[in-house]
Amino acid sequence: MTLRAATAGLLVRVALWFWLIGSGVAAAGDDRDGGRDPQEWLERMTVAMSQMTYQGTFVYLQGDEVVTMRITHVADESGVRERLVALSGAPREVLRDASGVRWVLGDGHAVLQDQAFSRSFFPLLPLDRQGQTKRSYALKLGGTGRIAGQSARRLEVIPRDEYRYGYTLWLEQHSALLLKWQLLDSKGGTLAKLMFTDIRMGSEVDPGELNSSSPLQEFRTVESRLPAGPGYVQEAPRWQPSSLPPGFELTDHRFFAAPDAAATGGGIYEHLVYSDGLAAVSVYVESGADRQAEGAGVNRLGTTHTFSRVADGALITVVGDVPAATVRLIGDAVAPVER
What we know:
The protein is of the alpha+beta class and 339 residues long. It has helices at 3-20, 38-51, 132-136, 261-264, 324-333; strands at residues 54-62, 65-76, 79-86, 92-97, 100-105, 110-114, 137-147, 150-159, 166-172, 178-184, 190-201, 220-223, 232-233, 239-241, 249-257, 268-275, 280-287, 297-301, 304-311, 314-320, 334-336. The strands form three sheets. The protein has a twelve-stranded mixed beta sheet with strand order 7-8-9-10-11-1-2-3-4-5-6-12. Strands 13-15-16-17-20-19-18 form a seven-stranded antiparallel beta sheet, with helices on both faces.
C-alpha cells in the first residue's frame, strides 16, 4: 500500500464517520430522573445507544451543510445490526453488522468494505466508573424539553481546558437515548449539531428497514485500504506519545504486520486510541514512509482535525473530533518506544 493510498483511505473513513455523528430552550426542571447524577446519565446513554433497538430520521447540520438520514439500529440475539440511508444529497447507505461496515456509494456503484471498522456512528461513551470524564469536563444537568415528540433531559458537558470541545446532549427521559447532540467550541459557539425529527423504540421498530434497497451483488466491492483482521496481533505499543493533554489515556491498541513485512521492511501499521472519557483521538503509524508527507501539519475536515508528520521513516497521523491544539500536541510527541 502506498503512502498516498493509506492516507486517502484513512481520511475517507474518518470523513464519513464524523460526517454522520453528531440541543435548545429548556423548560423548567423536574425530578423524574430519580435523583441520577450527570455521570450516570452519560453511562445510561452509552448503554442505550448500543443495546437498545431504535429507528428514526435525523438531521445533521454543520455550517451550510444539511444532511437528512434514516437510521435503523437493532440489538437482539443476533448482535447489533445497523443501517443508515441518506434521504438528501447523493444516494448512499451504510450497513453495519458483525462482519464490519459496508459503505454503499450509489453514485459510483461501489461498496467500500472494512471488516476492521465496526463502531457506531453516534457518540458511544465508555462506561466511566473511575470518574475520568469529571477530571476533564464539568457536567451539569439542565431542564427538560421535547425532541421528536419525546420528553428529553438536557445535559451540558463543559470542557475544563482548550484540549477538548464542549457538548450539549438531550437524552430521552426514561431510556437516556440520545435525541439531540450539539458540539461547541471553546467560546460556546456551535460547530455542528444533530437532531432526530422522529423516533421509534423497541417493538415499534420495523426490522425490514435493515435490508438494503440496492442489491449489493450488483455493485463492485472496494476493500478498504486500512489494515483489517488478518495479521492483527496484540502486543505492547511500539510507538507512543511521550506526553498527552491532561485526562487522555490509552484505551485501545492494535498492531498489524503484512506477511512480508520482515523481508521488505514495510507493511507495518499501528493504531492507538486515547480518550478522556468522552472525546477520542486515534494515532496511526505506518512504516516505510517517504521523507516528506503530503499535507503534513494540521488539517481540518469539518469538526475533525488531523495532524501528520514523518519521523524515523514512519508516517504518523493523528485524528480526532478535538481542537487543533490536541492533535498537534499528541502528534509531535509520538516516538518509538525504547525496549
